[in-house]
Amino acid sequence: MPSARLSVVVTRRLPEPVEARMRDLFDVTLREDDAPMSREELARAMREADVIVPTLSDRIDAGLIAQASDRLKLIANYGAGVDHIDVNTARQHGILVSNTPGVLTDDTADMTMALILSVTRRLPEGLARMQSGEWQGWSPTALLGGRVAGRRLGILGMGRIGQAVAKRAAAFGMQVHYHNRRRLRPEIEEEHEATYWESLDQMVARMDVLSINCPHTPSTFHLMNARRLKLMKPEAVIVNTSRGEVIDENALTRMLRAGEIAGAGLDVYEHGTEINPRLRELKNVVLLPHMGSATVEGRIEMGEKVIINIKTFDDGHRPPDQVVP
Ligand code: DGY
Question: What is the 3-state secondary structure (H, E, C) of the chain?
Answer without folding.
Answer: CCCCCCEEEECCCCCHHHHHHHHHHCEEECCCCCCCCCHHHHHHHHHHCCEEECCCCCCECHHHHHCCCCCCCEEECCCCCCCCECHHHHHHCCCEEECCCCCCHHHHHHHHHHHHHHHHCCHHHHHHHHHHCCCCCCCCCCCCCCCCCCCEEEEECCCHHHHHHHHHHHHCCCEEEEECCCCCCHHHHHHHCCEECCCHHHHHHHCCEEEECCCCCCCCCCCECHHHHCCCCCCCEEEECCCHHHECHHHHHHHHHCCCCCEEEECCCCCCCCCCHHHHCCCCEEECCCCCCCCHHHHHHHHHHHHHHHHHHHCCCCCCCECCC
